[in-house]
Amino acid sequence: MSDEHDNLFAESRAVTSGFRFDEQVVKVFPDMIARSVPGYELVVPMIGMLARRYAQPDSRIYDLGCSLGAASLAMSLAVRAGGTEIIAVDNSEAMVTRCKCNVDKNGGAVPIDVRLENMLDTRIENASVVVLNFTLQFLDREQRQALIDQVAAGMRTGGALIISEKICFEDDQEQSDQTAWHHDFKRAQGYSELEIAQKRNALEDVLRPETEVSHFKRLQQAGLTRPRRWFQCFSFASYIAFK
Ligand SMILES: C[S@@+](CC[C@H](N)C(=O)[O-])C[C@H]1O[C@@H](n2cnc3c(N)ncnc32)[C@H](O)[C@@H]1O
Question: Residue-wise pLDDT tens for the chain (243 aa)?
């Protein structure tokens, strides 16, 4: 079950819409995300570090849309508060199967409970840290406020919500600059023009980015405070907010 090089979009495809987190994607996922999301490999360990600061004793940590468990594993290794557990949730069966193997092999001191579940159905309780690492962007826009409200309601006072997202920009010139810089990043990672174009099409109706202002409004509407951007590389950003 070793990780494979991502060449899923290298051959010309008749239909390029409808990206799915299926078996094929799971096989190449670590390579795909590292070569597609600038900063991903920095964001993951920093989530571990932030979780170490904000995890409270005898509380829960949630990783919603955990994929192969990268953020959960980073938190499991970093968190020191006693009596914590990590609930890692994903609605892709292929991801969850592989995530469980990763967790068995590489988990740290904090136990990780991996669940096959739609995060909209996840009951958030007694949470000191909640992570949505490049996941909220895949929900329908209408469902995002309800999820964040649910998360905020289940958080402890002083708890932290970390949200990483691909974002978009109100200013057209900035949008086109940021897109060009992201595509340069992908070229530098060895992706061809065809791969970049086909992947872009496949994600078009699946990954729907929002502006930073929209994210901050939603966090504030849910009653969370001090929303801050702690990371950005091109159109990829990570935010933290507190209850
Ligand atoms: C880009 S990946 C997230 C990466 C991961 N958080 C990490 O740190 O490596 C998005 C993940 O969200 C999951 N996902 C999308 N919608 C979901 C939902 N409604 N409930 C649970 N998981 C979902 C997908 O199956 C996929 O594994």
Answer: 457 887 766 656 655 556 788 888 899 889 999 999 999 999 999 999 999 999 999 999 999 999 999 999 999 999 999 999 999 999 999 999 999 999 999 988 999 999 999 999 999 999 999 999 999 999 999 999 999 999 999 999 999 999 999 999 999 999 999 999 999 999 999 987 767 777 788 777 789 999 999 999 999 999 999 999 999 999 999 999 999
How many angstroms does the Cα of residue 192 sit away from the middle of ligand 1?
25
What's the CA gap between 86 and 224, in Å, rounded? 21
Q: How far is the CA of 37 from the centre of ligand 1 (A)?
A: 14
Which among 22, 90, 106 is the best mutation to test ligand 1's pocket, defined by most ligand atoms within 8 Å of the CB? Answer: 90
Beta bridge partners of 165: 237
CA-angle at 195, arms to 190 and 196, nearest 5°: 85
Q: What is the number of the ligand 1 atom nearest to the C-alpha of 37?
A: 1
Q: Which one, of 119, 136, 66, 71, lies nearest residue 94 by Cα?
A: 66
E-only strand ranges, 78-220: 85-90, 112-116, 127-133, 155-166
Residues in contact with ligand 1 (CB, 6 Å cut-off): 21, 33, 65-67, 70-71, 89-92, 95, 118-120, 133-135, 138-139
